[in-house]
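Dear colleague,

Thank you for sharing your sequence with our group. We've completed the structure prediction you requested, and as agreed, I am returning the results in plain text so they can be pasted directly into your records. Please verify that the sequence below matches your submission; if there's any discrepancy, let me know and we will rerun it promptly.
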Amino acid sequence: MPRIPVKRAAEAGPVLKLVYRIAGRRYGAVPEPLAVAAHHPALMRTSIVHETMAQKASTRLPGNVRELAVYRVATRIGCSWCVDFGTMLQLHEGLDIDRLKHIDDYATSPAFTRGERLALALADAMSGETVTVTDEQIAELETEFGRAGVVELTYQIALENSRARMNNALGIVDQGFTSGEACRVPMP
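Please find the predicted structure tokens below.
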């Protein structure tokens, strides 16, 4: 249970009820981070707009690279909600979720391509207590994905750091998007 309880639909006004209905249809359940953020409607709306725009703008990287890097951040920060939700998103995008078991060994695992390894290493370098990104890393990533791809990857990693740290601070844990019945979402 989160440190701040979710705002229930019974407590919601008509706009929030609509947001909950849309989220419920899209994900099978209202994501708890959204239901906790509902206690601050202006920030919740800001988050929805930001997430939507960031998703629509992120078109330069292959989806598997972006999703793996975001997933790696979630595992590094220890956000079980983000790991659960991220696994569901990868499953729905048709990505190989079995290889997520090898994410800690990405540097040597044959399950990951060179580009994926570079992206995962950037996620590691950006998700520790201090940022340890090097000029050489960025140069390699630029060769692999171009400048716009490096900016997109860095942005998405930073965004996931923000999500994962907020969820951890508020005690938001996995909802069962991939493992339980409560939020099982049908494949599109």
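Summary note from our side: The CA atoms of residues 70 and 159 lie 9 Å apart.

Kind regards,
the structure core
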